[in-house]
Every structure is written in C-alpha cells, then in structure tokens.
Amino acid sequence: MTLKTKFSVSSVCLVLVVVIGMTVSLFWSERRRVINEMNLSQKTELDKLVQVFLESSYLSNETIILNYIQQLISSDLKVFCAGTAETTGNGWFIDRTSPAINPVGPQDPLITSILDAKKFQKKEIVSRKGDRVTVLSVPVATKGELKGFVWLGYSWNEVSTLIGQNLWQKTTQLVAVALISIVFGVLIVQILIAALTRPIDQLMRAAILISKGKKGVQIPEEGEDELGRLTKTFNRMSIELTKLDELKDDFMSHVSHELRSPLTSIIATVELLKEMPLMEKDSKFKRQVDRLSFGSERLNRLVDNILDLTRMEAGKMPFDFQPADVARILTEMADFFEPRAMEKGLKITAIVPGNLSPALADAEKIRQVVSNLVHNAIKFTNSGGIILSAKEKSGYIQVSVQDTGVGIPKDKLRRVFEKFECLKDTKNRVEKPLPGSGLGLNIVRKSIEAHGGEIWVESEIDKGSTFIFTLPIAKTGSPSNESGSSRSGQKSEFKSKDAEIFLKNDSKEDQKTAL
Ligand SMILES: Nc1ncnc2c1ncn2[C@@H]1O[C@H](COP(=O)(O)OP(=O)(O)OP(=O)(O)O)[C@@H](O)[C@H]1O
Ligand SMILES: [Mg+2]
Questions:
Q1: For residues 319 and 491, is the Cβ–Cβ distance under 8 A?
Q2: Tell me: the pLDDT tens digits for 85-113?
Q3: To test the ligand 1 pocket, which listed residue (441, 446, 468) has its Cβ within 8 A of the most ligand atoms?
Q4: Are 174 and 22 spatial neighbours (Cβ–Cβ below 8 Å)?
Q5: Are 400 and 369 in contact (CB under 8 A)?
Q6: pLDDT digits 0-9 by tens, 126-136
Q7: Which of 220, 246, 416, 435 is 20 to 30 Å from 276 by CA-CA measure?
Q8: pTM to 2 decimals?
Q9: Which range is most confident: 26-35, 151-160, 223-232, 333-342?
Q10: Is 221 in the pocket of ligand 1 (CB under 6 A)?
Q11: Distance from first CA to last CA of the chain, Å, rounded?
Q12: Distances (CA, A) of 448 to 361, 391, 408
C-alpha cells in the first residue's frame, strides 16, 4: 500500500468517524429536546385543566369543565382521555373512543391510585379497549383545602408518532449535513494529502535517479516546513555526491593519462622483445614476454575503457554522425575476430542483407561497440559459434550479436550493463576464464544511447546470449557533411538523456517539467 493510499484511507476513516459521531450525538440531544418539549406542553395542559376545574367548581357549573375537556380532546390528537374526581373518589371522564360521559368511583383502580397520590403523578395504564395511555394526575386545592382531582390521559401511540415525526425531520436534515460534511472533508483531506505526498514523491523519484548513477539531480525547493528543509538537504547532498563523483572521475582520468605514456613504451618494448631470436631459443624468456604482453595489453584496454567512460560521463566524447554502412562493419568485424574465435574452436559468421539502409552513426564508435560485444561472446562461449546479423525494424537498424555461450541468469540481464559488473555465475562456467574490468558493456550502452538507440540482452543459461542494439536509419539523400537531416553530419558530444534532467544549473521551470 502506498503512503498516499494509507493517508487517504486513514483520514477518510477519521472524517467518517467524526461526522458519524457528531450526527449520533446530535440525534440523541435532539431526541431529548423533543421529549422535554412534549413533557412541558403536557404539564401546561394539566395546569390549564386545574384552572378550569377550579373555575367550574367555584361557579358550581360543571358544563365549563365538560366543554373544556371535549374541546381539548377534539383539538389535540395526543389527548386520549381527561376527567375529574371529588375528594370522595366519585367522578367522571370522557375518552376519545366515545362521546359519552363515563362515571367512576373510588373502587376504580385508577381513582384509587390517584386518591393515594398526594401530589402530581404519572402512570402508565391500558384502556378498556387495549390502548396504552400515560395518565398525568394532580390533586386540586385552594387555600389548603382539597377540592378534588383532575387527570389527563395521553395516547402512547400518538405521542410516540409525534416524537418520531419531529425526529425524522431533524434526522434527514442531520444526515444531509453529515453527507455534505463527509464530501467536503474527504475533498479537503485529498488536497492536503496531495500537497504532502508530492514532495515525497519527487524526493523518491530523485533518489531513484541518483541510485541509477545520475549526477546533479535537483528537485524544486518549496516552503520552509520540514519537507522544504528535507528537500534542501537532499539537494545539498546530491551536489556533494556529484562533486565527489567528479573528483573520483578526475582522479581516474588523471591516473589513466599518467599510465598511458609508460604503457605505450612497455607495449612497444614488448613488440621489440617478441622479434628477438631469444624468443625461439629460450622458452622461459618467451613465457615471460608473453605474460608481459598479455598483462600490458589488458592494462592498456583498462586505461582505454576508463578514459572513454570518463569522457562520456563528462559529456566530452566527440561523436561524428554520418550515414554508416552497418552491414560492412559487421562483415569486417567477423573477419577481424575470426582468428581469435578459431583459437577457441568457435565459428564466427556475419549474416546481413545486401540492401540494408545506412544507419546514422559514428562508424568508429559502432566498431568499438561490436568489437566489445564480439569480444565478450568469444570470452563467454566454450563451444559453438557467434552470429552477427542486422535487419531493418520500425525505422531503426537492429543489430544482434548472438552466441552459444554460458548464458546470463534472468535476474542479472539488466545488471550486466552497470559499471564494474562481472558476474561470477558466468565466469565460473567458462572453461578458460579471462579477467575483465566490467566496463565494456557500460561503455557500449552509453555509446548506443548517445546514438539515440537502445540496447538489451536476451539469454538462456547454457544455451547462449543475444545482445541486440538499435540505431536510427539515416534519411535518404542526406548529404554526409551537411545538416540536411536532424543529426546527419553533426559533430556531437555525448550527454546522457537522464543526466540532462536535473543538472544543477537547470532552471526551476525545467526541473519541474522533468519531474
Ligand atoms: N556474451 C556473454 N555471455 C555471458 N555473459 C556475458 C556476456 N557478455 C557479458 N557478460 C557478463 O557481463 C559482465 C559484464 O560484461 P563487460 O563486457 O561489461 O565486462 P567484462 O567483459 O567482464 O570486462 P571488460 O569488458 O571491461 O574487459 C561480464 O563479466 C559477464 O559476466
Ligand atoms: Mg567485456
């Protein structure tokens, strides 16, 4: 799960919990409020009934209270019944189910409980017809003299329906507000997460570039918060790494240059020694000279490779792009390597179509590329042969160097193009392993990329490997030394595509685009 998903899920859950929690607590407080309101209105109605009862008994006119109760029952659906009783317990009541005035006496259980209560009482009863009724009763007295009792019965069904209706209205409002809050909450959270994870994303991508060996990687610095400071520190670290890398490259190139002249003298001396008659006569002398020759050639190759690599990485390798005859290069290379292949009992062949279009390439550099690949193919093949071939595919010349060698493990196919990568797995399976510096394929890849092509390898253990690279086809009719085509005839200096992305002198705008 990515950081963004984790943030999103947890913050959306947080928003949901907060909104749902608030909605539930609002619902309960609203419910309490509605019930309190209902109780208050019932109390007010009972007080009013007491007033009318007193008025009616003062005027000795029962019609007043009767009329009032009938009017109350017809105007308020909640009121199920109402009645009065004298101090003796004899009285009457009217209920909603019949217009008749019903008499009651002290033996009636409701009246008994009302007479027993000395003050306000709330009681749940079931009417004769089975309705649940909440009865509120109160003794009525003036100047300390008890005059009688009044009671009001509320239908439980009607009251709860009314509460339900009130609450339903409020609940729908609350749910609507909750949904809107959730939508806005989630939106705001998403914006916050995007703002938070964008710099982390940039840091991650820049770190990947650095891990791939890119120099001068920089990311836009925004804000002074923790992430802003982290970005600044990262950029400083990247600059320091680049400086260190450049220092190392300078050192390597300097040492290689210093080695070059004595090495040339050694190789020249070895050539002279090889021509001496002692070579034929003294086997010990010959062994020493051969060892010297092998060692000096290896060292010379290493120095060449280091110088090529440092020049390429510094963007100082000159390329002269011209229409190049790839078919011819491959045939020449096959002829050149034939004696060396035959020494190992290997057959080397070039299979190229006669009408292959010219590639837009620096022929000398392509010779070096093919030479490196064929060199490897001979080195890592015990028996069989090597086939060099070329064909046209999707606007490119596709060149293959195929061998029947020891092969490369599937998980190392990409690694072989890294600097100083020499696989133990392959070396151990070769009958007479030769030493190597692990620079050849890295130089090959950089050279092909500088041509605007690609290189990859397909391989199967113990069956062989095929290194394939592409080169752009030169546009027909392009004059070899003029800039008629986009790259034809141009002198160019190598600069890796990725290395250009975050070079420290790039403008902020360019850096942003690159990210
Ligand atoms: N044709 C091949 N078959 C099997 N393994 C190969 C082949 N070509 C390259 N490799 C593997 O890839 C590694 C890197 O190759 P690369 O050419 O870069 O270095 P090298 O040949 O060891 O040394 P250098 O070329 O610098 O003298 C080799 O050491 C080898 O393990
Ligand atoms: Mg090699």
A1: yes
A2: 888 888 888 888 877 888 888 888 888 88
A3: 441
A4: no
A5: no
A6: 877 788 888 89
A7: 435
A8: 0.58
A9: 333-342
A10: no
A11: 22
A12: 9, 17, 21
